[in-house]
Design goal:
Layout lengths: L10 H23 L4 H27 L1
Helix pairs in contact: 1-2
């Protein structure tokens, strides 16, 4: 008999990783660049915050449906 059930274990963790993973990486790059180049670090921090805002909107809508 063929198993037709879909295994969705880990879907929430995957969505959380997609929401916060790149933003954390961008923030870490910003912290590394903060001593050498403050302007570039500020750009990375702004990108990280923007990514979190957009991803919470997109993934939040996907998680509520």
């Amino acid at each position: 008999m063929i198993n037709l059930e879909v295994n969705l274990d880990g879907i929430v963790e995957m969505m959380l990783a997609m929401m916060f993973g790149p933003a954390i990486i961008l923030a870490l790059i910003g912290f590394v660049l903060q001593k050498r180049n403050k302007k570039a670090a500020k750009v990375f921090f702004i990108l990280a915050v923007t990514y979190v805002i957009v991803s919470l909107g997109v993934c939040g809508v996907l998680m509520t449906q």
